[in-house]
Design a protein that fits this description.
This protein has 252 residues and is an all-beta fold. The chain has strands at 5-8, 13-16, 36-49, 53-66, 70-83, 86-103, 106-117, 122-135, 142-156, 164-181, 184-195, 198-215, 218-229, 239-249. The protein has a 14-stranded mixed beta sheet, with no helix packed on it. It holds the Pfam family DUF481.
């Protein structure tokens, strides 16, 4: 590998209600204009002590290979919670994406994703999608992207339910990366995913991160994630959000 990035993220402060159900792939891409491999791993560890002892650990691995015409991206994200003597994996996502450049500002995306989330009562969710991705700008100080995808969704609820949903959804996203100063960055992505046969059944997700460079390889980062599902699985809240602060260390 030409480049290897190790990211260790220590949570300083976090408020959350459940976990996100939409994967923000934009936050996982690494901007590159030359052919190269990119590897990143993210490790989060937390310990909470109140009426019970809660241990949390999560690991995210990203592999990316980029050429002048093609981009290949693989993501594996797993979270584990341990409450007293009971252990369970509450969330896992595997995501594969391929981009093919058509012209300078237009690419075609194809992706496949598998997902499970015990907190959101998702035993399995599988997605297959395809669509165009437009680059709206190419400035070094800001980058804007728009994607419109068509996807098939297969979803199974928890072990106690036999319900299986198979539907087609749209997925439109807008992503912006702003660099107002040399040591400050702001990255925000918003997704809108309606059910094509019933537009009142939709999901909205936004993830916004602000990074402040402290030293050459040290970054302080604040991330806010908001998710809304108009028709979630019964018993699951429509709104989910999470706020985290931390430090990121990188090296090549």
């Amino acid at each position: 590998m030409k480049h290897f990035i190790l990211i260790v993220f220590f949570s300083i402060l976090g408020y959350h209600i459940n976990y996100a159900q939409i994967v923000n792939v934009e936050s996982l891409r690494r901007v590159s204009d030359t052919s190269k491999w990119s590897v990143a791993t993210n490790l989060d560890v937390g310990l909470i002590k109140n009426t019970k002892s809660i241990f949390k650990i999560s690991n995210k691995i990203r592999l990316q290979y980029n050429t002048d015409k093609n981009l290949y991206l693989f993501v594996n994200d797993v979270k584990l919670d341990k409450i007293e003597d009971n252990s369970f994996v509450n969330k896992g996502i595997q995501h594969i994406r391929y981009n093919r450049k058509i012209v300078n500002r237009l690419k075609v995306e194809v992706f496949a994703q598998s997902q499970y989330d015990a907190i959101s009562d998702i035993k399995f969710r599988g997605l297959l999608g395809i669509g165009p991705r437009f680059k709206l700008s190419k400035s070094d100080n800001y980058r804007l992207y728009l994607g419109t995808l068509f996807m098939f969704e297969h979803e199974e609820a928890s072990e106690n339910s036999i319900e299986v949903l198979r539907d087609f959804r749209g997925s439109t996203y807008f992503s912006c990366s702003l660099y107002p100063l040399e040591n400050i960055s702001l990255v925000s992505t918003t997704y809108y995913q309606p059910l094509l046969k019933q537009f009142s059944d939709f999901r909205i997700s936004n993830e916004t991160s602000i990074g402040i460079k402290i030293l050459k390889n040290l970054l302080f980062k604040t991330t806010f994630t908001y998710n809304f599902d108009a028709n979630p699985i019964i018993g699951i809240p429509k709104t989910q959000y999470e706020l985290t602060n931390g430090i990121v260390y990188t090296f090549d």
